[in-house]
Design brief:
homodimer; 403 residues; alpha/beta; 14 helices; 44% helix
Chain lengths: 403, 403
């Protein structure tokens, strides 16, 4: 008996990152490949206290089935935080708790995407979004990123030509590039979007992790109900909890709730109560400030090491927050070849290709700086610089080709 | 700006159960409507100890991102339990941890269903499955249930005529009917299935909750890799944790993992560790025995009250386990009309219609007995019997029609 799978399964590839993570299981490999926050940032003891308080005070209620929308106090916290960060007025009815913001992408795909519908992505773009949307067999379009944000002329052109249903973007410290949209860029992009029916999906898992520059407003400030905002506790509390959320206007939220219910009834309600309790009993701003300082040190350390060890014609972004840097090798140099050479030297990263919908090999790569300490960052960047230098000078080239 | 949703959203209705739950928010209503386990069965203190042990011993590891497949010790526990219950040999590589078994349905839909593909359901069938599969716009077929299981002749006919890709069933204490497949019925159904390529989806959330009769083997015993088995900790540990699993052969599992990763990366890893720890430190058999005794008492109580208060031409199933009874009213009597009359008398249930893919009003209804104590069961069944009697005798009929 031959098993016949759905056609959509041909559109989605097993994540290249997961394949890389297999290489990096070897503890002697210094890995800049994953997208993991520093475990040193997780509030283990405070979560322990919160879990105990929830079970002692809420008892069996904390372990029963719950509402699809999510735990109300957690949704109220999210609304209050949007008000504080951006002056955004959002009601709990506009918040749906999801299994991490990744599930938000799946639910948005379910609610909006018929086969062949247009989805606009940044190039490079978040590979988890490429995977999630691919299951709905859309037609992808892309728009390039510049130092200050999305290329607005290109955005206007693609909106006019293709009228995509969704535009998915990560305006703060983008994964993979580390780039952010400036305030002026947001205003210009929003002005163009408002002339079209395209819904803007603003994924913001890193926005709270700013360690340089000035906070810019959420695109929702300019776009209102034309935007859907995704958030996550993964990078500011703990990713194992799989707690993210979707913020959307009621007309859209109604459909998202139907899709969420059909998909898994509701998000882990015990975890929702534990995190809500943690947030009520602890100072999140103080906690985030510690994470910011740690990530600033690691980002500075990586930037310094890059300046010292990378060949001068390799260019890197300098993020103002978040978790990633993006390196561009000289034209024609393959980051997949570099990955092979580097992994033999026990250092890993993610080659750029999986962040594009239309390229199989590129001269770009992603570096994560949040999950390595400073000694590892210096040693790893030194090894990686050596691999680049050897590759540029042709040393060992024959051996690599011969494999 | 008009929001244009995906076509599939027209195929799935907001669950009628959720609408009913709004009625039952009033605490003076006795509800047999929900599908909730008894909160008295939740091991609150043992979960508290397990959560503390996990955070104290595993620390930040318990809060980091984890593998898509799920926490290995939990998957090993599931394999060991299948070996013990059924003598089934399953490896951890054949187990994927999901957000409750509801997510298993979504992932199976993603992996197998193209638009218009055939899905065979029991009639009546689990409405969560109808909802989950509806998102993939399949063509539904149905096969009736008998007292001893699926109607095998009808099964054979529909397999031959329509060759559905999937046959979804709940062979133990089915939701909504409470009926179970006998051992002989399983053998006959499996013999028919083996002559076709249809994959059998065996959803088994209630199998451990047997309080009468003899345990029957899993259909996987007969079907091997032609079956996909779904399980859940929701009814034997706690539903808030949203921990279920899919058991499938490696060829299928590979695709399910890709779909799971695209859908939400992985299931809450903290909850997986907590439940694994709970299972390691406690005697699950002893815990389940307590639940069985409680549910047997409540089931007996409901059956006794039904014998006393329901009109004699209302017929009910007598389940050997699980959470539900299924009542059949006299031909032509609407369970939706009965719901309206009963809710005015402050007792609620689920009318049968949402458990069918092709009927909008029927003379059947579902009664849950696990989430009410014995006093509430007696009082609620008394009220419901009164509503039935009044309706059958035409008392108050004018007022109902006049609304």
């Amino acid at each position: 008996m031959e098993t016949v799978f759905a056609e959509r399964m041909g559109h989605v590839k097993k994540s290249f990152i997961r394949e890389i993570l297999k290489v990096t299981e070897d503890p002697s490999v210094i890995s800049f490949a994953g997208g993991l926050p520093s475990p040193a940032s997780f509030p283990v003891e405070a979560i322990d206290r919160a879990a105990q308080a929830v079970l002692e005070e809420d008892g069996a209620n904390a372990l029963q089935y719950s509402t699809t929308e999510g735990f109300l106090p957690l949704r109220e916290f999210i609304c209050a935080r949007y008000a504080k960060r951006f002056g955004l007025r959002v009601t709990p009815e506009e918040i749906l708790i999801t299994n991490g913001s990744q599930q938000g992408l799946d639910l948005i795909g379910k609610v909006f995407l018929d086969e062949g519908d247009g989805v606009l992505l940044e190039a490079p773009g978040y590979l988890g979004a490429i995977q999630a949307f691919s299951l709905f067999s859309p037609h992808f379009h892309t728009v390039p990123l510049r130092q200050d944000g999305v290329a607005v002329d290109a955005l206007q052109a693609v909106l006019e030509t293709h009228a995509p249903k969704l535009f998915y973007a990560v305006p703060n410290f983008q994964n993979p590039s580390g780039l952010s949209y400036s305030r002026a860029n947001r205003e210009r992009a929003a002005a163009v979007l408002k002339q079209h029916d395209t819904i803007f999906i603003e994924d913001d898992p890193y926005g709270e992790l700013r360690f340089a520059g000035e906070e810019a407003p959420s695109m929702r400030t300019f776009l209102g109900g034309q935007s859907i905002l995704l958030g996550s506790f993964s990078k500011i509390v703990a990713p194992a909890m799989r707690l993210g959320w979707i913020c959307a206007k009621p007309e859209i939220m109604e459909k998202l709730i139907v899709a969420k219910q059909a998909s898994d009834l509701h998000t882990n309600a015990f975890a929702q109560r534990v995190v809500a309790r943690y947030l009520a009993d602890n100072d999140l701003d103080k906690h985030i400030e510690k994470i910011r300082q740690m990530y600033k040190m690691r980002s500075d350390c990586m930037a310094d090491a890059i300046a010292r060890y990378f060949p001068p014609d390799v260019h890197c972004t300098r993020p103002q927050g978040g978790m990633f840097m993006w390196a561009t090798l000289p034209e024609g140099m393959s980051s997949i070849d570099l990955f092979q050479r580097a992994s033999a030297m026990r250092v890993a990263f993610v080659p750029g290709a999986p962040f594009y919908v239309d390229r199989s090999d590129v001269n770009t790569l992603r570096l994560n700086y949040t999950n390595s300490d400073e000694a590892a960052i210096q040693e790893g960047i030194c090894r990686l610089g050596q691999a680049m230098t050897e590759m540029l000078s042709g040393v060992g080239r024959v051996e690599v080709l011969a494999r």
